[in-house]
Amino acid sequence: MIKNKKILERFEIELLKNEKLNYERNLKIFSELHKFSKHLNKFRFEFLEDIENDIKYAFAINGIKRTFKKCSKGA
Question: Residues with Cβ < 8 Å from 64, sequence gap 6 or more?
């Protein structure tokens, strides 16, 4: 349980400042995890069928002003 929100926010800001993102490494990790989950038959693709609606709902719930069309086209 978080007791001091300001300390957590400072920690997150410092972590993001100091963390160097490595797209290739992260993509490789994702790819390997995906392969492993498929090997175990634990990864289901049914969730992809309704993902557009889920994204629209998330935008609405979180009060995001952009429309889904702009976001899905890379804007």
Answer: 58
Residue 52 contacts residue 68 (beta carbons within 8 Å): yes
Question: What region does 73 belong to: left with phi over 0, alpha with psi -120 to 50, or beta?
Answer: alpha
Q: Which two tokens stand for residue 51?
A: 């993902």
For 61, list phi and psi in degrees, rounded to 5.
-65, -40
Q: Assess whether pLDDT exceeds 70 at residue 73.
A: no
In tens, the pLDDT along 1-42 reads: 788 899 999 998 998 888 888 888 889 998 898 888 878 876
Backbone angles phi, psi at 20, to 5 degrees: -95, 120
What are the residue boundaries of the structural domains of the chain, listed by start?
1-43, 44-75
